[in-house]
Amino acid sequence: MTDRPAQRTPNRQLAALIAEAGFSNAGLARRVDQLGLEHGLDLRYDKTSVTRWLRGQQPRGTTPALIAEVFTRRLGRRLTAQDLGLDACAPVYAGLEFAGTPEEAIDIVGGLWRKDSGSHAELRKIAFTPAGLVVPSRDWLIGRPDDKVARSEAPARVPLQSGPGGRPAAPRRLAAPPPAAPPARAGSGPAAVPRPRGQGSERGPGQRVTGGDIAALRSVGELFRTLDDRYGGGHARQALVRYLEHECEPMLRGTYGEQTGRRLFGAAADLTRLAGWTSFDIAAHGLAQRYFVQALRLSQVAGDRAYGSFVLVTMSRQAVYLGHGREAVQLARVAQQGVGSGAPPVVQALLHSAEARGHGVLGEVRASTAALVRAERALETAKSGDETPYWARFFDEAQLADEFGHCHRDLQQFRAAAQHAERALQLRPAAHARSRVFCRVVLASARLGLGELDQACQLAAEAAGQAAEMRSVRALEYVRDFERRLEPYKDAAPVRTYRDRVAALG
Q1: Alpha-carbon distance 259 to 302, whole Å?
Q2: Please, what is the Cα angle at 467 between 463 and 469, to 5 degrees?
Q3: pLDDT-based confidence at 9, cuts 50/70/90?
Q4: Residue 465: which domain range?
Q5: Are residues 127 and 226 located together in one domain of the fold?
Q6: Can you spell out the DSSP letters for 349-370?
Q7: What is the pLDDT of residues 333-367, one digit of tens each?
Q8: Is residue 220 part of a domain?
């Protein structure tokens, strides 16, 4: 791997940290290579590479960030590339940091929004890294609330775009493009994205944030949540990211008091989590992971511990989907520990069900069953007058049945899986179209496990037809998972009929 031409000034900062960490040059190179593999990179550095860095040569691309992460893990404190005397890394790999201050949190998440809103396809190819879950969840759990959120004046610094090699380029100002309208469907008209009151086409940093601004952010969240549920995350994801860049970031860099500021960061956390959720749905897993980490940090600035637990549950869901059951369980348990026993019953049910899903992926029958029982008991204690957070209201009897169905399928308890999946489909409204696809495939897999091949193929064909109407990689992958389960029966007549029906979908 070729680095940029060497500078003449020896890197004493890097030398001091190598000595503090007790690394040999070969040991540091090996750890950088190993960390690169976690990010899907084949780096192949060696002790000679480290010698060149110590002499003043700057590693190229993403390597400075990887070196900084190696030292962060070793020394137990967060270090940046600049702390090591290295140039800032290419921003593609930024976003896993858990910011030390609210201002730093704005810088990190703002950079992520700006990079994602452009035509940077490489950003959506970043690999998911299980190791990247450890530090943010730990820092959230043990971190203290931010003392000051209010901003009385805008900082002189203006967020910069990234130039070649990850170096800052001149700032630019863009008018906010209108988000995409919902798809044209029978009986539905175009939906407008709310804009804060009193604004033209562009909002500049330093303007005072009002209650109407925050209400607009919340309305945008509801709109995009509806689009995601019905049509898949790929439909309007880019419009959401552009909205975050052009409307939300200037608000975060505006002026506001403590109470307004906490509410603003809470709304920003919710939209950022949703950006991550829609990225997850199109299989941009590394990008989604970064959005979730930043949403977790924003929720801490907001002082909303319960919402932070929801972000951790979202991260746990992604880990389950990717087959990282142990990490999924740990995230769910950190969420439970973070909110304690005082959370509303529906929230408790949500957290326990997330843990159950992780145990299910691991094949841990007793642990998964116990967590499901805790979730069921918690939901049974919920009352209509409870103050359930808006983000947890989706967790009802239909969702609990869905969780049971998934867990029993993963544990190969197919009769129970079929019963719960059928109940979930009966209870779940049609508006939750993607969730219904997932549940229908779970039911098809359970019927297949019970030897009911005809019914399994019919259910899966219906799910495939519905998935084809969405922009959701996850929905398609559910169908593909069922098809992999069909391999032992590939010559059977129902399977041939199924494949013909799916092929007709194009």
Answers
A1: 9
A2: 125
A3: confident
A4: 426-506
A5: yes
A6: HHHHHHHHHHHHHHT-HHHHHH
A7: 999 999 998 899 999 999 999 999 999 999 999 99
A8: yes
